[in-house]
Every structure is written in structure tokens, then in C-alpha cells.
UniProtKB/TrEMBL annotation:
<keyword id="KW-0433">Leucine-rich repeat</keyword>
<dbReference type="GO" id="GO:0006952">
    <property type="term" value="P:defense response"/>
</dbReference>
<keyword id="KW-0677">Repeat</keyword>
<keyword id="KW-0611">Plant defense</keyword>
<dbReference type="InterPro" id="IPR056789">
    <property type="entry name" value="LRR_R13L1-DRL21"/>
</dbReference>
<dbReference type="Pfam" id="PF25019">
    <property type="entry name" value="LRR_R13L1-DRL21"/>
</dbReference>
<protein>
    <recommendedName>
        <fullName>NB-ARC domain-containing protein</fullName>
    </recommendedName>
</protein>
<dbReference type="Pfam" id="PF23598">
    <property type="entry name" value="LRR_14"/>
</dbReference>
<feature type="domain" description="Disease resistance R13L4/SHOC-2-like LRR">
    <location>
        <begin position="170"/>
        <end position="257"/>
    </location>
</feature>
<dbReference type="InterPro" id="IPR055414">
    <property type="entry name" value="LRR_R13L4/SHOC2-like"/>
</dbReference>
<feature type="domain" description="R13L1/DRL21-like LRR repeat region">
    <location>
        <begin position="2"/>
        <end position="43"/>
    </location>
</feature>
<dbReference type="InterPro" id="IPR032675">
    <property type="entry name" value="LRR_dom_sf"/>
</dbReference>
Length: 360
């Protein structure tokens, strides 16, 4: 590596730097001297134990242009010191700290808008989130238990991703997130969604993925989700039913149900989804019937049923879906037989649909 004093000469205009797989690196160079650096990625520097004042350089304001900082897989990193009396990271808006299990403290950074944090000490998680009061996007992953009132100060949070965490239905994680528009809960140990779900009046998209312990959605927890436009429930192996409370999702336009093998039917209240335009049901082998009241989905334009091998027939009410432009049926042997052109028992109910595709 070249001497630190040469950094200004050799890298004066760099805007992005990645340091990775430096197995013998014990100290980071004075990257804070680079006036135009906007993106810095540090990954897999396994020998690094301390980030000290050398990292900041001898500037009055270190990292004056840095906007994105990522530190990942620093297994030995224990301490990150700051230099008092200097300004650090004045423009930093996005921070990723992942797989740094020994790190318990970071410099104070109040300008953060995006934070991704995972596989770190829970003390670090708490201090970062408590001090970052203007977050709009937050991703949390790989924590066995999340502290109470973790997000109580996040009044501006717009997007929340929670991956590989253990959640309780009594958790206050979703309380007070009145501005939240996107919620993604993935691969989390949870039987029921946190009660605070019902207060997410601004929520537009809800994604539930690989939540193997999820048995049901809250009966009343959907009542206030009047802004929800997209609901995707995927790979939830024990989900047995969807609640009749879906009737309150009057803004819902896109509904996807995928790989929920214990689901046997859809709720009758689906008829009240007056804004629904796209409905897709995939790989739900336990599904044996659909509610006849689907005649009432007056704006539905695309309907896909894929690999639902035990679904016996389409609802009679399909013939009333005059706005339906596309019907796709794949891997549904009973429907394939009943929907054969002209001869199938269900053909009179679907003949009006402009595009029909039925495949094995």
C-alpha cells in the first residue's frame, strides 16, 4: 500500500472506493481526506479490530462528501473511535452495518435516512436507531429478539424490512409508524402479526415471505389499512386462512398468494375488494374452492391460478367479471378439464374473456 501522505495526490477525485478481502489489514487508510468520496464499501477485512483517528485524516471535516457507507463482515471489529472537535460524515445518508458481532459503538451520525443493520450486537442496534431520528428506510436482520420501543422515535419512517428475526404478536415494533408505506417481514419466527399493524394507516404495500410459523392474519388488524394497495403472502407453510377482515382493504389492487399449502379457501369477504385489479394464486395445493362471490370484483383485469392441483372448479360468478382481460391457468388438472374450449363445463363462464391461456 502506498504511504498515507500520498493519498491526496493519487486519489484526489475518487467518488467511490471498495475495500474487500484484505485479510492482513489491521488499520484503515485516512480515507476521510478524500474530499469528493461519496460511496465507501468495506467488506471482509477480518483482521481489523479498531477504527481509529487515522481513518479520518487530518481534516477539520472528515468525509465531507460521503453519502453511502457500508461495513460488512468485519468479525473482529470491536471499537470505532471518534476525534472530538471535528465534524464527521456531514452528508452521510445511508449506512450499512452487517455481520460485525463485536462492534458495540459507532460515531454519532444524525443525518441518516437509510439504515441497514444485521448480525450485530443488540446494543449497537439500539443506539443507532435511537440516535437516527430522521430515518425513512430501515432494514433489520438476524436478531433473536428486538428491544421494546425500538422504533418509538421513527416518526418519518417510510419503509421497513425485517428479516430473520423473532417477533411476538404483542411486540410494539409497529406502534406509532404513522408514515410507514412499505412493510416487508421475511423469514421471521412469528405466529401472528404485531398488534400495531392496525395503526399503519399510510401502509401501501405489505409483503409476508417465508414466515413458516404464521398461522393467520389478525381478524381486526386489517380494518384501518385503508391505503393498502398491494398484499403479497408467500411461502407461509402453516397459514391456514385469510381473515374475513379483508373486506376493509378497499384500496387493494394487487393480491398475490403463493406457496401456502395449508390454505383451503379464500374468505367470502374477498367480494368487497372493490379496487382489486390483479389476483394471482400460486402453489396452494390445499385450495379446493374459490368463493362464488368473486362476481363482485368489478375492476379485476388479470386472474392467474398456477399449480393449485386440487382446485376443483372456477366460481360461477366469473361470467360477471366483464372487465377481466386475461385468465391464466397453469398446472391445475381439474380446471384444465372443465375449461376446455366449447366442451368444458366452465367454458360458458369464461368465454367472454379476451385472453385465455390454459397449460399443464
Amino acid at each position: 500500500m502506498f504511504p498515507y501522505w500520498m493519498m491526496d495526490l493519487l486519489l484526489p477525485n475518487h467518488v467511490e472506493i471498495s475495500l474487500g478481502n484484505c485479510e492482513r489489514c489491521h488499520q484503515l487508510p485516512p480515507l476521510g481526506k478524500l474530499r469528493f468520496l461519496k460511496v465507501l464499501n468495506i467488506c471482509r477485512i477480518s483482521a481489523l479490530k479498531y477504527i481509529d483517528d487515522t481513518f479520518y485524516g487530518d481534516m477539520e471535516s472528515s468525509f465531507p462528501s460521503l453519502e453511502v457507507l457500508s461495513i460488512r463482515v468485519a468479525l473482529c471489529l470491536e471499537e470505532w473511535t471518534t476525534v472530538n472537535g471535528r465534524e464527521h460524515f456531514p452528508l452521510l445518508s445511508s449506512l450499512t452495518v452487517d455481520c460485525c458481532p463485536k462492534l458495540v459503538k459507532l460515531p454519532m451520525i444524525q443525518s441518516l435516512k437509510e439504515l441497514h443493520i444485521g448480525e450485530t450486537n443488540v446494543t449497537l442496534l439500539t443506539s443507532l436507531i435511537m440516535n437516527a431520528t430522521v430515518l425513512t428506510s430501515l432494514r433489520i436482520s438476524d436478531f433473536n429478539e428486538l428491544p421494546d420501543e425500538l422504533l418509538k422515535n421513527q416518526k418519518q419512517l417510510d419503509r421497513l424490512n425485517v428479516f430473520y428475526c423473532s417477533l411476538k404478536s404483542s411486540s410494539d415494533l409497529l406502534d406509532n409508524l404513522s408514515c410507514l408505506k412499505y412493510l416487508d417481514i421475511q423469514a421471521c419466527s412469528i405466529e401472528s402479526l404485531p398488534a400495531g399493524l392496525q395503526n399503519l394507516s399510510s401502509l401501501e404495500t405489505l409483503d409476508l415471505n417465508f414466515c413458516d410459523s404464521l398461522v393467520s392474519l389478525p381478524v381486526n388488524g386489517l380494518q384501518r389499512l385503508s391505503s393498502l394497495c398491494s398484499l403479497r403472502v408467500q411461502h407461509c407453510k402453516t397459514l391456514a386462512s385469510l381473515p374475513e377482515g379483508m373486506r376493509y382493504l378497499t384500496s387493494l389492487q394487487d393480491l398475490l398468494i403463493n406457496e401456502c399449502p395449508e390454505l383451503t379457501s379464500l374468505p367470502r369477504s374477498i367480494q368487497h375488494l372493490s379496487s382489486l385489479r390483479y389476483l394471482q394464486i400460486r402453489c396452494c395445493r390445499g385450495l379446493i374452492s374459490l368463493p362464488d362471490e368473486m362476481q363482485h370484483l368489478s375492476l379485476l383485469s388479470e386472474f392467474s391460478i398456477i399449480n393449485c392441483s386440487n382446485l376443483m372448479s372456477l366460481p360461477q360468478g366469473v361470467h360477471n367479471l366483464t372487465t377481466l382481460q386475461a385468465l391464466r391457468i397453469y398446472g391445475c388438472p381439474h380446471l384444465q378439464r372443465r375449461c376446455k374450449k366449447v366442451r368444458g363445463e366452465d367454458w360458458p363462464n369464461i368465454a367472454h374473456i379476451p385472453f385465455i391461456e390454459i397449460l399443464n
